[in-house]
Amino acid sequence: MAGIKKFLLLFAQDFVEFRYPEIESLIKLFKINVEVPKVTPIERPYWILENVSESDVRKIASRSVSLRWVAEIWSSGTSYDEFHGNVKSSMSSIDGKYKNESFKFMVETYNKHIKLKQRIEKIETMNYLDSVLGTIDLKNPDNTFVYFEYYGLDDLNVPEHPEDIYFGKWIADGQRDLFNKISLKTRKFIGNTSMDPQLSILMANQGLCKPNDLMFDPFCGTGSMLIAGALFGSYVIGMDIDYLTLHAKTKPSRALQKVRAADESIRANMEQYNLQNLYLDVFVGDFANYPLKENLTFDSIICDPPYGVREGLLKVEKKERRKFTAMTEDAIHYPSLSDYKMTNLFHDLLNFSVKHLKMDGRLVCWFPIPDKFYDDTIFPKHSALKLISTSRQQLIGDTSRILLTYEKIAETGEIVQNDALENVDFRMKYFTQYDKERKETRHKNHQKNLDEAKKRGIRLMDKSEWKKYVNKKRQAEAMEKDS
């Protein structure tokens, strides 16, 4: 079946919206000439790639963390009779080499769990392949063949028979083990905002990180994005305004850990994963007034800007003159910090990227947003940057964050003004929302207590009556004290 160039890509069921941007980015990275299918609905767990070589799909699998495995499709059908008929008719085209090689079967189903006995029964229905395949070896086979059944997406109404059935040869697994390798559970140095390893790798893929590139994170924190970029061979450098975080002087984030170990640091993390040769350094700096040379360029800028919730939106305050309270001209100055409006931060980030990215370089960053304001038109834009993709991750409550991927298309340009963006203050709306929710919850609980007491024949005072009672009591106590 050497002439067939059709492959099934089976994905894991997490971060569904990130699949397409990641695969599309990898296709660009490896310069693969193939059209990425726009699968609908996006929750469907598999794609079919046509007219692509095996070496190309192996390249995709060598980087993708969304992908579980890839298989070359030899036959398919929408019913058992059609499927088995198609497999039998294609047996004559199976390469004769497989007769002299060992194999095993891998049976996969989606949206329907089947037991081992049922899996074996499905394999036995294909015993007609014995004439063209070699011997079975379950431990170390030369080839693995895939039998895959798809039962749709509705887990409440699973059909009796599969909607699609596929048979083919396993080609490669995705890199799902990679984010376990850099798990936060075993990482030497972490903080409150350390990025999920899978997301940091997705960001590195969308940033097109590759060997000998230079990647920069201007809000590096504990260095999660630096690790992800270095995993794919990029040299990495980071900056952050928080001295205590960069130098591991903050309170430990792990439960039961009272003090940080003496060797906790971003460098220690890089050494833990044997990436120290790609680690240039990190430095303390204010992004609103960054200390970088004008002609310094990066291949990618990958970051998670602060939202003002767990980490403050801060910048160094600019002052026109020295305070009169300063004792002497040569006194040590500790600069104070002021609020950094989120809109200004993202405008600065886009301008910085246009100035310091190479042409076709990518900016990958998170943009937080309350769900009720979610709209494709609200994202910050720049005339010299093309917004390549947006992927949404649901956060706690009615809030989300969107992974934005930009590509530099011009050397100069300007911010595209967006009135809708100016009205979205994520920090204010985040806390206002929860203040309102807490008030509503307290009101509901109070009303519930009143209703339950009424059922027991007890009358409780409502809020207005309780306030009157408290005020009268206070007045009586004050009069008694005066007398």
Summarize this structure briefly.
The chain is α/β, with parallel strands linked by helices. It is built from 13 helices and 17 strands.
How are the SSEs ordered, and which strands pair?
Layout: E1 6-11, H1 19-29, E2 46-50, H2 54-61, E3 67-77, H3 80-89, E4 103-110, H4 116-124, E5 143-150, E6 164-173, H5 178-181, H6 197-206, E7 214-217, H7 224-231, E8 235-240, H8 243-246, H9 266-272, E9 279-284, E10 298-303, E11 314-316, E12 337-339, H10 342-356, E13 357-370, E14 381-382, E15 385-394, E16 399-408, E17 415-416, H11 419-422, H12 426-455, H13 463-482
Parallel strand pairs: 4-5, 7-8, 7-10, 8-9, 10-13
Antiparallel strand pairs: 1-2, 1-3, 3-6, 5-6, 11-12, 13-16, 14-17, 15-16
Helix pairs in contact: 1-6, 6-7
Helices, by number, come to: 13
Low-pLDDT parts are: none
Query: Can you count the beta strands?
Result: 17
- Structural class category: alpha/beta
Please compute the radius of gyration using only Cα atoms: 29 Å
Order of helices and strands: EHEHEHEHEEHHEHEHHEEEEHEEEEEHHH
Helicity level? 25-40%
Report the major sheet. Answer: 7 strands, mixed
